[in-house]
Amino acid sequence: MAATTQVRTYTIREGLLDEWVRRWREEIVPLRLEFGFSLGGAWVDRERNHFLWEISYEGPESFAQRNRRYWESPERKAMALDPDEYLVSAEVREVTRVY
């Protein structure tokens, strides 16, 4: 199965951008990697309070199936990290690498 890549743009609640970045790096990244996702990078746009990141999955399941397994995992539930506490909005775009 070909890799599926998403570019995600999150608008973070005022005053929570640095906390979000810290928790994303310390908690989300290791578990995403454990579940077979690869991360192409992450960026902050402080002027707009945006957090942008690239996530891919290539494996026997679809991206959606693997993502569902990630969210339903006991490890993810144990995080006690509710994105709604941090995110005002989220835009997810599926993209195809051309270079």
Question: How would you describe this structure in keywords?
Answer:
alpha+beta; 33% helix; 3 helices; globular; 99 residues; Alpha-Beta Plaits; 4-stranded antiparallel beta sheet
- Give a short account of the largest sheet: 4 strands, antiparallel
The spatial strand order of the largest sheet comes to 2-3-1-4
By CATH reckoning, the class would read: Alpha Beta
Q: Which spans have pLDDT < 50 for at least 5 consecutive residues? A: none
Task: Report how far the terminal alpha carbons are from each other.
Answer: 19 Å
What does this structure look like?
The chain has 99 residues and is an alpha+beta fold. It has one domain (4-95): Alpha-Beta Plaits (2-Layer Sandwich). The chain has helices at 17-34, 63-72, 74-78, and strands at 4-12, 37-45, 50-57, 87-95.
